[in-house]
Design a protein that fits this description.
two-stranded antiparallel ribbon, alpha+beta, disordered N terminus, Aminopeptidase, five-stranded mixed beta sheet
Length: 167
């Protein structure tokens, strides 16, 4: 059991992180569709399937885990890896963190991020980054509880291909 913070109280929430493998891609795409639907984004299932398959086929790119609680898979977390000159070694990006609605506000996201952080420390990752919407206060709260802080940097992007949420 991991002691995690819930909404305004402490509770004990059992959590297990189960590493995902290529045969888990259909289940991951289903969860990703739930995640994207909450923000009103359609999901290009073919693109998402290819993205998960590519990531799960090469550990150098990153890892995916299912978040398990109450004997079931209630979410997932995606960690991608790259080399950072600023940190002088590997850096990670929490690319997706999703907990199904009925299991939220029990500290599962925070507990999952702490597990990912411990994994990264063992792997030699020097920093972990995350991107959230400026108006997504709930996600920002989860990340702050796990130790993430605001930086003085802005994230900029140059899209060279369509994102997964475009059909």
């Amino acid at each position: 059991m991991v002691r995690v913070s819930g909404n305004d109280f402490w509770q004990l929430t059992p959590i297990t992180m189960k590493r995902a493998f290529p045969n888990d891609v259909p289940q991951l795409v289903t969860m990703m569709a739930e995640f994207y639907a909450e923000s009103g984004y359609p999901l290009n299932h073919q693109h998402a399937t290819k993205a998960f398959a590519t990531l799960l086929a090469d550990e150098r790119l990153g890892y995916v885990w299912f978040i398990q609680a109450d004997g079931q898979e209630v979410g997932y977390v995606v960690l991608t890896l790259c080399y950072s000159m600023e940190y002088g070694g590997l850096s990670g990006l929490v690319d997706d963190l999703f907990v199904r609605l009925p299991f939220r506000r029990a500290g599962l996201g925070t507990a999952a991020l702490k597990e990912v952080s411990a994994f990264c420390a063992e792997l030699g990752v020097r920093a972990i980054h995350v991107e959230t919407g400026r108006d997504n206060a709930a996600a920002q709260t989860v990340y702050r509880r796990a130790g993430f802080t605001q930086t003085d940097r802005d994230l900029l992007a140059l899209s060279l291909a369509s994102p997964t949420h475009e059909e």
